[in-house]
Amino acid sequence: MPVAIRLSRGGAKKRPYYKIVVTDSRKARDGKFIERIGSYNPLLAKDNPDRVKLDEDRAKHWLSVGAQPSDRVMRFLDAAGIMERQPRNNPQKAEPGDKAKERIEEKAAKDVAAKEAAAAAAAAPAEEAPAEETEAPAEEAPAEEAKAEEAPVEEAAPEEAAAEDAPAEEEAKS
After folding, report:
1. Which of 91, 99, 123, 131 has its CA 20 to 30 A from that of 145?
2. DSSP symbols for 52-73
3. Contacts by 72-76 with C-beta closer than 8 Å and gap 24+?
4. Is 17 exposed, middle or buried, given 0-12, 13-18 or 19+ CB atoms closer than 10 A?
């Protein structure tokens, strides 16, 4: 018979109170149990000594017989010094993987290079700046002419579209 040491819930709705029981693991959570070895009241403060009451002698006996404690009961036994609980949380689990670390390093290197390029452009001699300004207006003028030429085309396009839609609407009515 597989024996477990676990919690059995009691108390009212939203006012839990648990018994620490030794039971057949195949029985229902709040069902029949072999022996009650303690209690747990989660509504009490964590430093309150009445929060967890445990009969340590009986717990040691059942552990020696082969009873398996649940996770929560294992915490209580660890706090009482009866059994050592291995931590289940893996602190390295949240660390990024090798490829993610490489991507982060590459991105940092690109950011540094971009900052250096911006600093080099800002530190360029003042003689080069006027040469760029003279070329820039020459480049903007053809762009403005191209926009002016495109505007009439755009205005004509809606009229043509309306003219094309009109015969289609007349055919649909027929």
Report:
1. 131
2. EEE-HHHHHHHHHHTPEEPHHH
3. 72/6, 72/7, 72/40, 73/5, 73/6, 73/7, 73/20, 76/20, 76/38, 76/40, 76/52
4. middle
pLDDT number for residue 21? 96
What is the pLDDT confidence band of residue 78, given thresholds at 50, 70 and 90? very high
> In whole angstroms, what separates CA 162 from the centre of its chain?
53
Report how far apart the first and last C-alpha atoms of the chain are (Å, whole number). 88
Q: How far apart are CA 14 and CA 17, in angstroms?
A: 10
- For residues 60 and 81, the answer to whether their CB atoms sit within 8 Å is no
Q: Which amino acid is at 26?
A: R
Name the residue among 99, 77, 72 with its Cα closest to residue 88: 72
From the CB of residue 45, how many other CB atoms can be counted at a distance below 10 Å?
A: 7
Tokens of 110: 């690109």
pLDDT the model gives residue 87? 77
Better-scored residue on pLDDT, 51 or 131: 51
Domain boundaries, the chain: 3-80, 94-123, 128-162
